[in-house]
Every structure is written in C-alpha cells, then in structure tokens.
Amino acid sequence: MSSVSIEGVWTAIGTPFSDNGSVDWSAFESHLAQQAAAKITGIVISGTTGESPTLTVQEKISMVRKARAVLPPGVRVMAGSGGNNTAQSIELSKLCVDAGADSLLIVTPPYNKPSMAGLRLHYQMISESVAVPLCLYHVPGRTGQGLTVSALADLTTIPNVVAVKEASGDLGLYGRLVNASTANILTGDDPTYLASLAVGGRGVISVISNIFPEAMVEMTRAFHAKKNERALAIHKILLPAIDIMFCEGNPGPLKAAFEILGLSKNILRAPLAPVTSENYALIKSTLFLAKSQLASLLARSE
Predict the structure, then answer these.
(1) Which of 32, 148, 159, 188 has the highest local Cβ count within 10 Å?
(2) Active site (annotated) includes residue 137
C-alpha cells in the first residue's frame, strides 16, 4: 500500500454536463486546470458533489483516467467507489485504481444500515481487494446511519483505512475522533473547516474549493503559518458563499455557480434539478461579493 497520507485541501469536484446530458469533457479539463493552478492537494471524483449516483461506471472510470492524464503528478486523484453493495464496491474500486486513482473514498453503506460487524466486513473486504489508501466517508445526513466516535475509531484500525472524511458537522464528535484514532481526520463540512484544524484536523474534502480553490489553500497555509488573523479573514469572506452552496441540495447551487462564473453549464441529472430563480439570484450576488473581497485580500501578502 502507498505510504502517502491523505491530508490537505481536496476538492470534491463537480461533474459538468453538456446540453444533451453527457459529461462535458472540455469543461471537466478546464475545472482540473483551475484546481491544479491553485495548488490543491487533490481532487475527489464521483463523490456526492460529482453526482455519483447518476454517473455510469464507465463515466466514473473515464473521469479518473482523464484526471490522471491531464493533472500534474503532484495533484492526487481520489475516487468515490463505495456503495451499499460490497461486491460492486470492490469491482468499482479495482477499476478506479486501474484507471489511475491513488486513493479511494468509501462511504458507509447507505440504506442497508449494517451492524458494526457488517461495516467491518465491508471495509475489510474492500481493503483486501486494492493496494491504495482508503478514506472512510461518514455522512449520516445522507446515509441515515450516524456512527459513534468509538465505532469510527475501530473502523480505522482496518488495514489501508488511513483517513476519515467526517461530514456530520459536529465539531465535538470531530475533535473526539481526532483524539481516538491514529487516522488522519478530514472534514467534509466546509463551514467548520478552519475550526477543525484547531482541534487537530488534517484537511478538508471541500465543495467551495470548486470555485474558490486559491482561498481554501491560502487559508490552510495561513493557519499552519500561525497567521490566524489572515486565516480568519478568509474564512469570514468564504462563509456566506459556503452557506449559499447549500441553499438547496448539493450540488444544485454549485452548478448554478459554475454557470454564473462561466465555468460550465447549469445542468444536473434527474432526479436533481436546477435551483429556483430566487436562489440563483442570491447565489450570484453572494459569489460576486466574495470574489471581489477575496481578490482584494489575497492580493495582500503576509
């Protein structure tokens, strides 16, 4: 297994679609170039933000292959390959690794609500099938199953499970998990990212870095350089933009943001639908304000 740890700023990249509903490969490459230019640590393909439930297996594999081909070697590629069918998760995991993914994001199985014995079996079987690091994805708001700190810590003792994307938004649980596990704990909750670093977090798998990657990277750098006022200033500018990205279900608002900023089209796959016109207007005004404020702040080096 690779000894490279999972930490830093990762973008849960959105999947751009063309008018006919197919993947917009030109826009996807542009998204990747923007991320690389911002010196992001890595990208996550076919996660929640990438509309993974509506992507075909071939699309997921093609996106991993494309990302690995066009990104510089220093930008890492994680693929979302978990699901509620262990055998299918194993098959997809192998295909993603063959396509160039250097780590995998494995969600706790939704809908099934497995016991701890079942969860251990799921992660153990996937771990034994591939030779890359695994990041456990804890998102009770989407899976319907919230795990305790002790349960999460126990799952990180499985070989290859080297990180957790903790997306409950519960900073108390997050801090206790940092204490209880030797795995790297990353937040999947943008509003609490800066605070998570203060309690020992090792990074983020982010939605907002789709559109403001430089700001997320600079906020992280400032925190580790003990430039707390600069980190906090960036956080305060980003927070309204982060919040507006969840005015409706993710990634609906993000797709609107892509169109507003000229990155790709405001197209989602059913059952998701574009945001309302009222929310579109709010997203536009919020993003333009944040963009202006960040340009001014980031231009001032410290």
Answers:
(1) 188
(2) yes
> pLDDT tens, 149-164?
999 999 999 999 999 9
Backbone angles phi, psi at 66, to 5 degrees: -65, -45
Q: How far is 154 from 182, CA to CA, in rounded Å?
A: 10
Tokens 């001014």 identify what position? Answer: 296
DSSP assignment of 47-93 equals STTTTGGGS-HHHHHHHHHHHHHHS-TTSEEEEE---S-HHHHHHHH
Domains of the chain: 8-225 (3.20.20.70)
Q: What is the mean pLDDT of the chain?
A: 96
CB distance 138 to 105 below 8 Å: no
DSSP state of 263: S
Catalytic residue among 165, 174, 193, 255: 165
Contact 268, 252 (CB under 8 A): yes
pLDDT at 244: 98
**pTM surpassing 0.90?**
yes
- H-run or E-run covering 99: helix 86-99
Burial 150-162, CB ≥16 within 10 A → b, else e: eebbbbbebebbb
Query: For this structure, is 165 an active site residue?
Result: yes
Q: Per DSSP, which regions of the chain are E strands? A: 8-12, 42-45, 76-80, 103-107, 134-138, 161-166, 184-187, 203-206
Query: What pLDDT is recorded for position 301?
Result: 74
Which residues of the chain fall short of a pLDDT of 50? 1-2
Tell me the per-residue pLDDT of 228-254, one tens digit each, with 9 for 90 and over. 999 999 999 999 999 999 999 999 999
Write down the catalytic residue from 66, 123, 137, 174: 137
| CA pair distance 138, 149, nearest whole angstrom | 11
- Cα separation, 66 vs 45, whole angstroms: 11
